Amino acid sequence: TQNYRITLLPGDGIGPEIMAVAVDVLKIIGQKFDLKFDFQEALIGGAAIDATGEPLPAATLDTCRNSDAVLLAAIGGYKWDTLPSNLRPEAGLLGLRAGLGLFANLRPAKILPQLIDASTLKKEVVEGVDIMVVRELTGGIYFGKPKGIFETETGEKRGVNTMVYTESEIDRIGKVAFEAARKRGKKLCSVDKANVLEVSQLWRDRITQLSQEYPDIELSHLYVDNAAMQLVRAPKQFDTIVTGNLFGDILSDAAAMLTGSIGMLPSASLGASGPGVFEPVHGSAPDIAGQDKANPLAQVLSAAMMLRYALDQPAAADAIENAVFQVLEQGDRTGDILSPGTKLLGCRAMGESLIKAIG
Ligand code: NAD
Ligand code: IPM
Ligand code: MN
């Protein structure tokens, strides 16, 4: 039996609801594949603020560091939205990413054939979409200094953030992206704003330099405004996309809608070494929290990514993905992916259906 220490961070809003489904799925997968998961639950986000006053208690970071992988649901909610930024739930998530050195965020957006009718876009546009967004996760405008709200000489307030990338930060995310493209369709599109921003000019130069080491990969560049438009106009032109922290955040939400719902999109946040964090692309969905309405599939697919990328258990990951495929094939749907002729289930019932499918 293989033993794995998994830290669970359910967080806020729909977080605990979708995490419960993912844990049930992992337990049954464990039985089937002779894997033992030692789950440790820890506090992050609003839940941690309420219990300890801090969005990322030191004990949580320690527990994560001492595990083989971290499964995170989502953080944030109305209740904490007026706190200063360093005490908000989001600061907990950013601190976790920085604390574990998770500079590479892989966000696959692949449409499942069963969900073509769930997309708001035309069938011809989305059929066959299979994109990997490689988002830089520990740099850029999220972390650059100076940052803060300062007072000017005239007594006016001035909000400041700074978009910064160093050559080494660009190179390491670039390598991850070229390697990812090599395992996929061998096409990489780097997205920046090099027509305006110096930070993007450096980004484009370094990515272009790096491409000499990857002659088998076809590299292109797009400005982020055009990239957003192209993603909606003709998404099938994209294979792998590499971009900075903020642009990647925005483009991956846009890419989510190609697949039917943001409730379907998993992600993996990886560093050079140490445990990775596996988390849905969506947030805590406070508008539907506590109502058993959330789609747990992004969370369940994040658990599959954990098995694939962190625990090297591809067969177990395949089994989860096949179960997702099967319940969708049966017509099981949560509200966000409902279409004519399919059956509306709650979050828990979707979980039960998955368990049955895994058998
Ligand atoms: P959100 O992703 O939480 O929700 C956007 C919309 O999508 C909402 O209408 C929501 O109901 C829906 N949605 C999201 N996930 C869903 C799911 N699994 N099933 C069904 N519907 C789903 O984004 P938001 O409303 O802008 O942010 C809410 C809170 O979440 C904020 O506090 C934000 O900071 C936080 N957030 C956290 C993460 C994270 O933890 N990784 C990511 C994004 C946003
Ligand atoms: C995400 C979220 C986070 C981000 C927030 C909650 C800090 O939107 O994971 O996409 O902006 O990275
Ligand atoms: Mn986001």
From TrEMBL:
Function: Catalyzes the oxidation of 3-carboxy-2-hydroxy-4-methylpentanoate (3-isopropylmalate) to 3-carboxy-4-methyl-2-oxopentanoate. The product decarboxylates to 4-methyl-2 oxopentanoate.
Site (Important for catalysis): Y142, K193
Co-factor binding details: Binds 1 Mg(2+) or Mn(2+) ion per subunit.
E.C. number: 1.1.1.85
Gene Ontology BP terms: L-leucine biosynthetic process
A Pfam family annotated for this UniProt entry: Iso_dh
Keyword set, alphabetical order: Amino-acid biosynthesis, Branched-chain amino acid biosynthesis, Cytoplasm, Leucine biosynthesis, Magnesium, Manganese, Metal-binding, NAD, Oxidoreductase
GO function terms (MF aspect): 3-isopropylmalate dehydrogenase activity; magnesium ion binding; NAD binding
Co-factor requirement: Mg(2+); Mn(2+)
Record-stated family: Belongs to the isocitrate and isopropylmalate dehydrogenases family. LeuB type 1 subfamily.
Domain Isopropylmalate dehydrogenase-like: 5-354
Catalysis performed (reactions): (2R,3S)-3-isopropylmalate + NAD(+) = 4-methyl-2-oxopentanoate + CO2 + NADH
Organism (species): Tolypothrix tenuis PCC 7101
Top class in the EC scheme: oxidoreductase
Protein name: 3-isopropylmalate dehydrogenase
Residues given in the record as Mg(2+) binding sites: D225, D249, D253
Pathway terms, separated by semicolons: Amino-acid biosynthesis; L-leucine biosynthesis; L-leucine from 3-methyl-2-oxobutanoate: step 3/4
Compartments (UniProt record): Cytoplasm
The protein's assembly and partners: Homodimer.
Positions bound to substrate: R97, R107, R135, D225
Binding site for NAD(+): 77-90, 283-295
